[in-house]
Amino acid sequence: MRPSMLFITLVSIALVACDSSSTDIDGSPGAAGSSAATEGNQDARGATAPGTDDPAPTSSGQAASSEPVPGPDGVDRPGPDLPIPEMDMGPRAPAPGSDPEPEPGPNEGPDSEGDDEPDTAPVAEPVEATCGADDSPETGLQGDSYPGTVNCGLTLLSELPVGGHVQGSGHCAFVRVPGGAPYTGSDIKAFSLADPLNPVETDEEPAIGGSESMRAQTADGRAILVSGRGVYDVSNCEDLVKKGEIAWPSQNAQLGLYFAALSSHEIAISHDAKRVYSGLGFTIAHIEDLEQPDTWTVKNWSCEMNKQSGFPGQVPNSCEGPSQEDLGRQYSHSSDDNFEGTVWYGANQEGSSSQMEPATARMVDISDPNNITILDTVRNFPGHSMNWWRAPDGREFIIGANEGLGAADSCADYPRPVNLGNALDAYIVEVTGNKFGEPFPLTLDINKPENCQAARRSRANASISEHSLYNKGEAAFVMMEWGGAGLRVFDLRDGDNPKEVAYYNDGRGHVHSGVFHYDDARGIMLASGTRAVQVLMLQPQIIAALGLPYPTDPDYPYK
Amino acid sequence: MNPRAASHIKTSHPTGRAGHCVAIRKLLGAALAPLAACLLCPANLPAHANGRLPGATGLAIHPTQGDELLLGLTYGLALSRDGGASWSWMCEQQIEGNGSDVDPAIVMTDDGTLIVLSLTNGGVLVSTDDGCTFQRAMGPLAGHRGVDLTLDTSQSGRVLALLSTIIEAAIGGHPRLRNLVAQSLDHGRTWTILAELPDDMWGETLEVAPSDPERIYVSGTSSADPLLGIVERSDDGGVTWTRTTVDLPHGSGSLFVSGIHPTDRERLWFRVPGRGDIYGVLPARLWLSTDGAASFEPVGDTQGGMLGFAVSPEGDRVVFGGPLDGLFVAPSNASTAPTKIANVQVKCLRWHANGLYVCADEPTAPYSLGYTTEPTEGIAPLWNRRDTCRATCPPASPLEVTCREPWKVIAPLVNASAPICGAPSSIPDAGTGGGLSIDAGSTSLAKGPDGGPDAITAVTSGPRPAQATAPKTSSAGGCTVSSSLARAPRTPWWLALMLILAVRRHRALARIRRRSPT
Predict the structure, then answer these.
(1) Nearest residue of A to residue B281 by CA position?
(2) E strands, A73-199, where?
(3) How much is the average pLDDT of B187-213?
(4) What is the DSSP letter of B315?
(5) Which residues in chain B are contacts of A25 at CB distance < 8 A?
(6) Full set of structural domains in chain B with CATH
(7) Which distant-in-sequence residues (6+ apart) come within 8 Å of A446 by Cβ?
(8) CB contact under 8 A, A443 and B277
């Protein structure tokens, strides 16, 4: 056993040992083994009596052993908890900036690189996620509105002094500062987080073109950042190097109307960082040779998708004309591929007069660069956000969600509408064997019908716009931008039973379509913010609970 | 089906798929209008779901009180009860917009009730207190996708709704839809199903003949072939229906009933746009039927989309236009060709006994809502984006609570002058600088520095709402501020750029048309 593995084990033991005195993620004490007691309508937060919809989100429901105490912001806090014990860090990892990487696991994805030995916490006996001693957990319904900051398992380390979409690679964060038109950025800034408590800006490049968010991908031997048309090499993450521009076919994009562009409205990067996928339609930019952007090609598959999906060819621009890239059926917004890059997953947000179908997800065989084939289709699965993952047991899933203004009616029972505007819930469906399973919704307690009156009273606005996924080794978790409920982290290793393990919500919200990034070498989670980008630390017990490699940064956990 | 959630709550496996999928339009194209707005929007503009910049897209007018106006916006609604002298704003969240670039259908009934078709949750939203609160009316509308609302002006409180919902969407097959015509006789509070139409149609529009409330038209296209237009006509108030089909031109795919003659129920106009062309960039046609939709005659077209159409109150003229083509007027009997009367980027048109209302895009146009008693004599600004303000409602009203945060985003975008309607303007009254200006106490408008053809000319004749003729100034009684365009941004570079892009766009569209069969 490597020293780091031993350390992880010790940490796990310590956490389990102190579990009875730590605060469970739902605000109740003694989380371990509590699931059986919290099934059904009984809310583990103790604030909602079974069969009622009248929670008392600020004070009731704490167990006697952990009486709530008023916090400085007037919110009741859980009773005294034992602090997480100081941990023996064991042998020190390489110095900050050297970007140590975790081991590959069953998911031998391009992101996985590094040592030969496993460096992850054992997952055979999952460690229950618990809040840290200094956290301010939600005291009522999961995802409700609370004054001040509520957090569990995530600690704010610092804020980058600019707002916008954030991504990361190595020890750096990249922030796209909003530009003067929708979906554009003025500049992309690079920050070194070698000392995450004291970020340092290291570089800045003009943003080029527009896309709803900005994406980065780090794979074997390469790390790229893409925003709109611009492709940047970030393999030396402190130095943004523009490598070229993608010639998205959309005429609207060429005119600067990115929000109305069927290509480059939104983008996603393949796991191998060699292709960029566009939404709202389906276009693939092949950017294998970063050094020779003149070799890059762009394949617009919208017409072929129209044909294969049965979209009538007679309507405007189905397969002809320069506006073909801007009008017609949508197939994606965000999108994703599998590790091997052979299957692409996308979903539209709604059926419309031109959509001529309900919200629909498709998986497409893209293994042949010159041909695509729709492998399977499933209805009522929205895809403003879209991520694929492979669970430790080899099963594969996608998660997607719509977007909305927060006007969706949480009193609506399931099955709920999945049209645009209904973004209370995410949807998950298994895609193993290139066949869709049956989608099911994933939600927060505040969005459940039985809690809708409480949600109305508190003006809760837990509405999803985006999510980002980490899937390396034995770990799989999703970071969800859940509107007024803030950043929510779900363990996805059991794809049938996602489990929330951490959250951070300071009430300020994130940028629309805010994406996230987790740096496993430092245990840092980056969250897009409107006024500032948050640099958060995933606490050790959550890292253990998620089966993540323990951060190799010698300063972790940061004090 | 139960959701799965929370760290410790185990839920059952799904028992079925998410249900009724409400289909609504999503962004599908581009136009110069939003481009112009984009070019002018402030730096550090936050990315919004729909990406659109603030503007007006539709107008509902009280059926008898012509000075009561409900303006549809890309960011909610604006209401005026005094002919445009003062307006109050309702945010998109309050009326359950979906954050997309489709705006809900709206009507105002004869007791002043506001009715909004919910895009997110279904049903309609009804307000009797000027938008401070909305109540949802659902009943038989539940689970159905609303697509259109219309008033029966002959009967107090009668409102009709068209619902067209996918009920079966087999992979690779044609969808089946439940097409319902519903009606309310009490200003939208309760609803009943008036008729169920065949399931092979995408329902698109619904109209009641002003001269005969028993004559109802529903238009749409075949679910199997979007180039097969369908008109369902009822002569008995919805009890029985007669179908007419018509081949639509290649490259279109939609059929909208756009206006019915005020005294002749057999004479009605159809727009034939590019399907989903909500920005108005694809060619559109105007068809006239003089025999109750038995046959159709082309009477006009636009190179770009035709987002506005209106029939004059007397029924002798029609106006139509779009963002790329400007505003046209024509005799309703099509005896002469349409005449272009303004270059304004038309987003909507309403022709009331008081006069013609025109939605347009600022700052390309000097107004978001313009008004004239006579279309050929120029259009005066009636509402500008910066007139947006929040209504004064009782504390903790839904409007106040729901719209507080959206206001923080919207206010800087529209350069709002006053946060609360009636509050003093936060911007010093204008009166200097370039651009257009309105002389106090008159309707004369001076040409701006561009001297363009759509600069405002005098509006001098005919009746009009008294308030519309007066200069709009900041006052304690309303949210209005000066309508002077002296504060209009003076950024010549964007005008030049916009012109270049306009030319490019036109050329591109022309290339399409040359290549495409007509």
Answers:
(1) A323
(2) 76-77, 130-131, 150-152, 154-160, 165-169, 172-178, 185-192
(3) 97
(4) S
(5) 7
(6) 56-386 (2.130.10.10)
(7) A141, A142, A143, A144, A410, A454, A455, A458, A460, A462, A485
(8) no
Chain A environment of B146 (Cβ under 8 Å): none
Question: Looking at the partner chain, which of A26, A258, A357 has a beta carbon nearest the beta carbon of B175?
Answer: A357
Query: Using the beta-carbon criterion (under 8 Å), do B120 and A407 form an inter-chain contact?
Result: yes
Q: Report how far Cα B160 is from the mean position of its chain's Cα atoms.
A: 17
User: Is residue B449 within 8 Å of residue B437, measured between CB atoms?
Assistant: no
pLDDT for residue A4 is more than 60: no
Instruction: Name the residue of chain B whose CA is nearest to A177's CA.
Output: B44
Q: How far apart are CA B77 and CA B88, in angstroms?
A: 8
**Between the ranges A114-118, B233-237, B414-418, where is the mean pLDDT highest?**
B233-237
Q: Which tokens belong to B153?
A: 């002006």
Q: Identify the CATH number of the domain defined by range A150-546.
A: 2.130.10.10
In sequence order, what are the residues at sequence separation of 6 or more whose Cβ sits closer than 8 angstroms to the Cβ of residue A268? Answer: A215, A276, A277, A279, A334, A335, A336, A337, A386
Nearest to B275 among A31, A315, A441 (CB): A315
Burial group, residue B193, by CB count within 10 angstroms (0-12, 13-18, 19+): middle
The answer to whether the Cβ–Cβ distance between A407 and B254 falls below 8 Å is no
pLDDT band at A352 (very low <50, low <70, confident <90, very high): low
Give the C-alpha separation, A409 to B226, whole Å: 32
Residue A451, pLDDT > 50, answer yes
Q: How far apart are CA B139 and CA A193, in angstroms?
A: 56
Instruction: Output Rg (C-alpha) for chain A, integer angstroms.
Output: 23
DSSP 8-state secondary structure symbol assigned to residue B466: H
Please report the DSSP string for B257-275 in residue order.
EEEE-SS-TT-EEEEEPBT
Tell me how close the Cα of A43 comes to any Cα of chain B, in angstroms.
Answer: 8
B274 and A351: CB-CB below 8 Å?
Answer: no
B43 residue type, one letter: A
Q: Taking phi first (over 0 means left), then psi (-120 to 50 degrees means alpha), and beta for anything else, what does residue B226 get?
A: alpha
Question: Between chain A and chain B, how many beta carbons pairs sit less than 8 Å apart?
Answer: 348
* Shortest Cα distance, chain B CAs vs residue A32, angstroms: 10
pLDDT digits (tens, 9 = 90+) for A286-325: 999 999 999 999 999 988 998 899 888 777 666 765 555 5
* Domain locations in chain A as residue ranges: 150-546
Q: What is the pLDDT of residues A509-535, one digit of tens each?
A: 899 899 999 999 999 999 999 889 999
Contact B21 A417 (CB under 8 A): yes
Question: Around B72, how many Cα atoms within 13 Å sit in the side-chain half-sphere?
Answer: 22
Q: To 5 degrees, how large is the angle CA A334–CA A101–CA A505?
A: 50
Helices (H) and strands (E) in chain A, counts: 5, 33
Q: How far is B460 from chain A (nearest CA, A)?
A: 39
Q: Do A179 and B43 touch (CB under 8 A)?
A: yes
Tens of pLDDT, residues B11-34: 222 222 222 222 222 233 333 333
CA-based nearest distance A320→chain B, Å: 8
Contact A440 B24 (CB under 8 A): no
Contacts of B50 in chain A (CB under 8 A): 259
Residue B450 has pLDDT above 80, yes or no: no
**Residue A422 to residue B120, Cβ atoms within 8 A:** yes
Residues of chain B with Cβ-Cβ distance to A417 below 8 Å are 18-22, 120-122
Closest residue in chain B to residue A354, using alpha carbons only: B276
Cβ atoms < 10 Å from Cβ of B194: 18
Residue with the larger pLDDT of the pair A23 and B19: A23
Find tokens 């092979």 and name the residue.
B200
The partner residue sitting opposite A252, judged by closest CB among B6, B30, B169, is B30
Of A491, A489, A411, residue with least CA distance to A446: A411
Most confident of A98-102, A263-267, B360-364, B375-379: B375-379
